[in-house]
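RECORD CONTENTS
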Amino acid sequence: RVLGLTTSWESLPKSCENTTRHGIIINKPWKYISNLAIAILVLGLTTSWDTLPKSCGNTTRHGIIINKPWKYISNLAIAILVLGSYHNLGMVAQQLREYHQARDYYQQALEINIEFGDRYSSATTYHNLGMVAQELREYDQARDYYQQALEINIEFYDRYLCASTYHQLGSVAQELREYDQARDYYQQALEINIEFGDRYSCASTYHNLGMVAQELREYDQARDYYQQALEIYIEFGDRYSCASTYGQLGLLAQAEENYAEARTNLQTALEIYVEYQDEYRATVTQEILEGLPE
């Protein structure tokens, strides 16, 4: 969902020395852009080779030193390059839980989108700003960002991208204990993911629907949702995500005073957390196990 996103977080090098591509010296942190962004930049030449003057000194824009003859590129090409960099930096900061820094980068990307009238691309930035606000427990702000993202995706008939935003709106409503609203949003996300055959993304939505049903004491419905989430995680080999669903099934059984089933599911969750060295969740699960009646 991010313009210029690198192939994976692991591919980012530890050092950020300057690099040169197609005559452009990209200073840290501008090197983290995709080949597509560079290609668009290069294709953005606004004049032909024959019209270039013999003497054309270097110029600097947005931290990028553009050597001759590459200074003859369009503002749009520069904007795309810078936009991708701001967005990538926001994603990196978000991954590192540096949420205030991430918000700053996303805001700068958004300003560029608005300046160049790229309303469609703004949707992704609004969505990510919503996620940052949600992590900071600024739920009203998060909901506002998600609603703006949703409005744009609906306007541009991008129904598939609406699914993740509906899911996040459901998550905000769930945090605010607005369970009926949360369920409605999750159901819309689920409907779209099923429509587009995105079975894996359905798993987290089934899981969250299970949590909502459990809060409403609709235990049979909750168990059904958890089982569907678990089935998908197993199908896709996502063993770690199974742990949280086993944990919820354990808590559900505990609420029903079925302590044998609760112990079985919580023990399975614990084993997975230990396997993946998630000490925090393993400790929490162990404490719940120890608190179960014999």
User: Anything to note?
Assistant: The mean pLDDT is 81. The CA atoms of residues 34 and 178 lie 41 Å apart. Strands lie at 19-21, 24-26, 59-61, 64-66.
